[in-house]
Amino acid sequence: MADEINELAQSYSWPVVYEADRNFDRGKGREVNWGVTREVVLGYLESHISNDCCIVAVGKDPELAERVIRQMDDDLEDEIESFAELLAAIQDDEDPRHLAQSLVRAGFGAPREFDQEFFAAFAKAAREHDEYRVRDIAVSSVVYIEWPEFKPLLEEIQVHDSEEQVRARATIVLRAYEAAGM
Fold first, then answer.
1. Torsion angle of the four alpha carbons 147, 149, 155, 161, in this order, in degrees rounded to the nearest 10
2. Which of 144, 157, 154, 159 is nearest to 174 (CA)?
3. CA-CA distance, 164 to 76, in Å (whole number)?
4. 126 near 135, Cβ under 8 Å?
């Protein structure tokens, strides 16, 4: 997908302003940023867990950033999984490894506005899954969604999860939410 997005960015004359490949224990990740304007950057992030990617536009001009994302959504329409497909994967997948990958994909591709079904599916995986690594991935993936409705869930997990790693991850995500002004 990075090549397709790079071609689009080049067609809009957006230069690469940052590029990095990262090696993790579980695979490789990639990050690329293009300068849309001096105030807005288009970012590409490839997950080392799911081998899926997301794009974000950020900067001092939120209206332009939103237009850039909508344009990318239109340009890449055939490449993007639907909300229904993402939701079905996290609701139906019972294999822990596949569920973890589906949670990352769903975190990247979740609706911008709060959705009760997505929330419930993430909450169930984050609170109830027997495998602590799945709970940890569910909590980690919430950082990409940025719905304030997740804060009470994260606060509950921070205090009550049976695994220190999951409690610590909830703390990290809560700090990210606070840094984002949520």
1. -90
2. 154
3. 39
4. yes
| pLDDT tens digits, 103-125 | 988 988 888 889 999 999 999 99
The whole model's pTM is what? 0.72
- Position 109 scores a pLDDT of 84
Tell me how crowded residue 161 is: count the other CB atoms within 10 A of its CB: 20
Q: Could you give the dihedral angle defined by the CA atoms of residues 50, 117, 132 and 106, in that order, rounded to the nearest 10 degrees?
A: 10
